[in-house]
């Protein structure tokens, strides 16, 4: 009897890529590599250099379980349990939204203002994973308060602060209801999806908490509430920054008056509203 040929890591990667194609499309190869690196505990360079090695069978069940979750539509980030933003690692799971590159526009704008104006105290409102406030604290040295209505999100934010060596204050609050202090900079990525957006959600996004997605019939409810309450919590000379959804910047700027302006992301989309 001829001995069955053992598959290589390269062959296993190709099989995983083919399996992922229906949910990941052109990202299938990248996702397969990320799953293998996560399962093996390797970095991308080691995976590349070892592709001709025999596939280590002890990882097969772990990889099969990960692929099964992905094929059911679960986001890649939740399966990996960690995602990077601004070069920093953040634990992610279904307690909070996945950090997205869109939010780097807000963080980079905030960092510029912090360095230009010497701001020291920052509030990350609707913080979720805490990625905004933690990034600002880690990269600029400001003191950060992380605030959210979700106890689960706040527990995740606390974990991420510890992961990144940041000491942050944690406040459970419905927007400003339990916020007593004033801040040099308030950053917020509130829920901003409308009824139409929620009806059209991709399957992956449906795994994320609706509490952090839905912003009312037109998606603007949270901006209205912030406009009515934020002034009492901004220090003299301070600033408010808010991420907005596609096509929302003009309406949000109107709510906040003449000092509000929009910042475009790398794709030219008005992604952040700044209120001075």
Q: What can you tell me about this protein's structure?
A:
With 276 residues, the protein is an alpha/beta fold. 41% of the residues lie in helices and 18% in strands. It contains eleven helices and nine strands. The strands form two sheets. The chain has a seven-stranded mixed β-sheet, sandwiched between helices. A two-stranded antiparallel sheet has the order 1-2. The N and C termini lie far apart (78 Å). The mean pLDDT is 95.
Keywords summarizing the entry:
276 residues; alpha/beta; 7-stranded mixed β-sheet; two-stranded antiparallel ribbon; 11 helices
Show the helix and strand layout.
Elements: H1 9-24, H2 28-40, H3 44-49, H4 60-71, H5 76-80, E1 82-85, E2 88-91, H6 103-117, E3 121-125, H7 131-140, E4 143-148, H8 151-163, E5 168-172, E6 183-188, H9 195-199, H10 221-229, E7 234-243, H11 249-256, E8 260-264, E9 270-275
Parallel strand pairs: 3-4, 3-6, 4-5, 6-7
Antiparallel strand pairs: 1-2, 7-9, 8-9
Helix pairs in contact: 1-2, 6-7
């Amino acid at each position: 009897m001829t001995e069955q040929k053992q598959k290589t890591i390269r062959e296993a990667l190709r099989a995983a890529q083919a399996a992922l194609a229906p949910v990941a499309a052109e990202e299938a190869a990248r996702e397969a590599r990320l799953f293998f690196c996560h399962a093996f505990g390797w970095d991308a360079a080691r995976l590349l250099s070892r592709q001709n090695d025999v596939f280590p069978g002890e990882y097969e069940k772990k990889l099969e379980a990960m692929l099964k979750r992905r094929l059911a539509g679960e986001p890649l980030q939740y399966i990996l349990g960690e995602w990077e933003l601004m070069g920093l690692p953040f634990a992610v799971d279904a307690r909070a939204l996945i950090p997205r590159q869109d939010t780097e526009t807000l963080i980079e704008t905030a960092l510029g203002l912090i360095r230009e104006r010497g701001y020291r105290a920052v509030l990350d409102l609707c913080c979720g994973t805490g990625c905004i406030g933690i990034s600002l604290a880690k990269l600029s040295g400001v003191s950060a308060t992380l605030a959210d209505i979700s106890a689960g999100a706040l527990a995740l934010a606390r974990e991420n602060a510890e992961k990144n060596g940041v000491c942050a204050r944690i406040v459970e609050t419905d927007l400003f209801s339990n916020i007593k202090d004033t801040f040099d900079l308030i950053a917020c990525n509130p829920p901003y999806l409308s009824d139409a957006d929620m009806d059209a959600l991709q399957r992956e996004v449906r795994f994320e908490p609706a509490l952090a997605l839905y912003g009312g019939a037109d998606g603007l409810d949270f901006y209205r509430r912030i406009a009515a309450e934020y002034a009492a919590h901004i220090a003299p000379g301070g600033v408010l920054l808010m991420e907005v959804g596609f096509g929302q910047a003009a309406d949000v700027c109107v709510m906040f008056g003449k000092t509000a302006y929009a910042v475009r992301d790398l794709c030219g989309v008005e992604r952040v509203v700044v209120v001075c």
